[in-house]
Design a protein that fits this description.
The protein is an all-alpha fold. The chain is built from four helices and no strands. The protein has a domain of 52 residues.
Length: 98
């Protein structure tokens, strides 16, 4: 068993569902067996399998870094927070089809 001093810690588990927890347990096991290399490899495998689940899991580990990266990428594309608020406001006012 490897020393676990720098094991990545879950920070915000608010939006995780049961399937996300299954993947987190796999990632924790990979870290326990192979350290940081196993952690990264398990995250890469999850990314290839399900990018939305990967994003929820990475957000649980690194919420601030992910949000900052998203903000930076949006800014580089010319999208502002106000643009997003307007988009989501417009989406809420659209009738849904059933």
């Amino acid at each position: 068993m490897l020393k676990q001093d720098n094991e990545p810690q879950l920070v915000d588990t608010t939006d995780l569902n049961d399937a996300d927890w299954v993947e987190i347990n796999k990632i924790k096991q990979a870290y326990a067996q192979r350290g940081q290399r196993g952690f990264v490899k398990a995250l890469d495998a999850l990314y290839k399998m399900d990018r939305f689940r990967w994003l929820r899991v990475v957000l649980a580990y690194y919420p601030r870094a992910v949000r900052e990266a998203m903000r930076d990428n949006m800014a580089a594309s010319g999208v502002t927070a106000e643009d997003l608020q307007e988009m989501f406001g417009n989406m809420k006012s659209c009738p849904t089809k059933h």
